[in-house]
User: Fold these one by one.
Assistant:
Number 1:
Amino acid sequence: MAVIAIQMAMAAEPEGAPSNAAKAPAAKASTAPGSLKIGKVTVSGSLRSRIEGFDWFEPASGNNAYAYSGNLFRLSFAQKLENWEWNAEFAVPILLGMPSDSSVPGAQGALGAGANYFAANGRRGNRAMIFPKQLYVRLTPFGGAGQSLKLGRFEFLDGSELAPKNATLAAVKNSRVAQRLLGNFGWTNVGRSFDGLHYSYTKSWGNFTFVSGVPTRGVFQVDGWGWNRTAFGYAAVTLP
């Protein structure tokens, strides 16, 4: 099996993102590079374009060697107020050249990810759709510092509540611990979000997180409007 992916990405950094520009004088740092201010609303976005090529083992039949294009455009409108903030982000996945003959019966099944995209999108070689990727408000409940309550549609990665100060441990946690059960499937050309609530309480002793919601459609399917027929609850206490 051989898989080759060529990726190009262009992104507008969200306001406040770490960058060299943070070292500039305050008069020049009111808006992060690449972001756009419309009144009090910050507009940012990204475009990720990939060409993926598969050579999927040596099946007895079916097309196992092919290439296709996967693209994801994201556009966000956000505003931070004194005690709350909101974010409306839209996603447009665009799939081009999905193989129509890369699924075979029996144990061989799908010959690479291209077959999964083709099957999940009405057996069409080209698909695109726009849907809300994130649509939430974040509040500070009970007037308490260190608290955050997010309501609506959002992305969530379990195990990422606190980042260790040690760089090596942080890298291990990010690559081996986070998203073990819940994640946004960011490696696909569509991804996934969750509709529900996300509560976080952070103090010097550590962090308590509670999340409950319903996973949206997505991952291989470009239609991210609706939900999967399931729900979940998640709670974690993290001590540094």
Number 2:
Amino acid sequence: MMDAKLLEYDFDEEEVGFGEPATSAAVHQDSLSGLEKFSLALVGLGLLSVLVQVFGSSLAGTWVGFLTAFGLPSAGAMLYYWADFKDTTPGIKHDGVFFRGLLARGGAGWIAGILMTGLYVLLYWYPQMLGHPSDGGEPTGLVRVVDPLARVMTGYPASQWFLYGVLYTLSIVVFGTRMLMKYRHNRYHQIRTFSVAFFQFVFAWLLP
């Protein structure tokens, strides 16, 4: 049996100086720096470029259209991660994870899940909705945005799978930047991240 005095022991961490634990409101009170706002503006402009090209802008199918649609969001996201982590202590950062909507079954998480699931449904079963030509003609929609790069790399018009390769490879590079900034003190994680990006870019996308 446990000692009755031990069971009655009451220790108040706040009274001795530990302070109150962080709440969901405190987690989200951090303000964005000017550089972070600028990087997010680049992401927004890139997404706007994608939107107008999908609906038939003359930019679709040009290098300007491709670079604004995919270059701006990628550069903006990498710049955001750099600005977000550059003044922090390297290492694991899980503070507030359970309060973030994207990671705690919140609204942002549901939207992200539906978008990613919907993309795979379109890729496999309804590629024409992404702009893949069904009769051997010219690509349209989102597929047309990556057409300039596809013609240089393959000599053929873009397909839904070339679009997917571009999206997947850029995701590896962008989130690889986040990984490098978080673990910039750890050589193992640096080599691992560079290896993943290299093999995805060369063996999983460029060579095929």
Number 3:
Amino acid sequence: MSDADHIPRSLLLFDGECGLCTRSVRFVLDRDRVGRLRFGSLQSDLGRRVLVANGLDPDELSSLVLVDAEGRVWTRSDAALRVSGDLGWPWSWGRAFLVVPRFLRDGVYDVIARNRIRWFGTADACELPAPGAAERFVG
């Protein structure tokens, strides 16, 4: 059995030390009413395992990583826009931006990623998930 066999599906990995990232997870949690996604930190053992298993640098923490329900791995703007597509109206309209060429989408994503700590700060403390959401955090 390979490491890939132990990677949860419908998993969103994020930088657990980034203020923007943790707020984004809270945003998704509040809008993913059917509880489709699970969440984990890129810094966790599971996060590092997912990155390595998919040929990604486990020390690079500036990207969202989505493992979708089919086991495909998406990063950067692909991950963000695919997550938005699962959130219901009006957020699902974000998925329409997938028609924009990736180099343009990722260019904008990279500017935000490079400046996220300066603009949004770090996660001040380990925020406890709302009741009923704790089981959606893995790793």
Number 4:
Amino acid sequence: MTTVALRNAQVVLPDRKAAGHSVLINNGRIVTCSEETIDADQALDLSGFTLFAGFIDAHIHGAVGIDANNSEAEGLHQVSRFLASNGVTGWLPTLVPDSADNYRKAIQTIEDVMRAQREPNREEVVVGARVLGVHYEGPFVSDQQCGALRSQFFKNFDNVGDLETLPRLAFPGAVHLSTVAPEIEGGIALIGTMTQQDWIVSLGHTRATPAVLDQALAAGASHMTHFMNAMAPLHQRAPGPIAWGLLHDDVSCDIIADGEHIDPLMLQLLVKLKGTTALALISDSIAAAGLGDGDYAIWGETINVKDGRTSNARGSIAGSVITMLDAVRLMLSLGVPEVEVARMAATNPARLLKIEDECGSIAEGKRADLVALDQQGNVRLTIIGGEVAFMSEPPAVAGD
């Protein structure tokens, strides 16, 4: 197996930024990170670049014209390649509420892509961001906070049979995440059942009171979906989910850092109040991401994109058109240190998805999922499982 050394990078480690370090990769894993010159079969000079752990997007509906609810396998491969070019090394296709038939088709497609990406001899598949599982955004959410979701598919929970309407992936190790509003009929029982069945439950699209949210936490839900969006607003006499989430150190939150869903000043406030150990970045991007302004037929309606802001016919924001790279750039522009941004873009999503032993940081033994940014914040190199997935203006081959 060919060994690869990435030399002279500014390496963002879990606890510090290390200047002039080299990372040795062998068999898809990080062997070591050192300030010493490392011998390898192949070496790339990353002088002037900053090396991050690859970004992980736990909430993305699609991009480049592809929607996860109705895509064929090649469409998801196309999204994976697009994401790799933007520094993403792992993602969860996120499904909006839909019919049982469409759910089954989407899950089969996701499973096909996961198998193709992990086949040892997959010459026909270009390396792209790994599909890690599935995220169901609903259908067990509140019709009072539906946002852009289609409320005609929303459900309450009466018994275990209701959960069986969400097909699971048969692929070993696949992540199953679901956004749930705990106040729906049977919501607490649903969270308990999902937790017992190894679902990751995130609280969102909700107007739940703190008392109900306490019950949800006790039942196993300790994360919140696109915090501050699609949930009851903060009010001095009705604290609701936002105050509850801010006050609970044992609850993590993900945020859409596009400057539209949350004002940049509020992003700074969240970092100060919640801290970056409990915040994860997501894109929440839709099929229009990467295509520019215009009108797009998505989820049975027309979604307009203008100046980077989405809106549907009801005037609601309907997802975003950013990538995780855009979110990283925005947080860096707000003065959040690179080590903390790396935590929000990779480490915390990996912990949420329970894959932190595999990826999410630059450390010995972890998967070699890496992204190198230049001083302008552009992706120059993305490595996924030790393989080059994207390279822009190839770095110089380092001399021995």
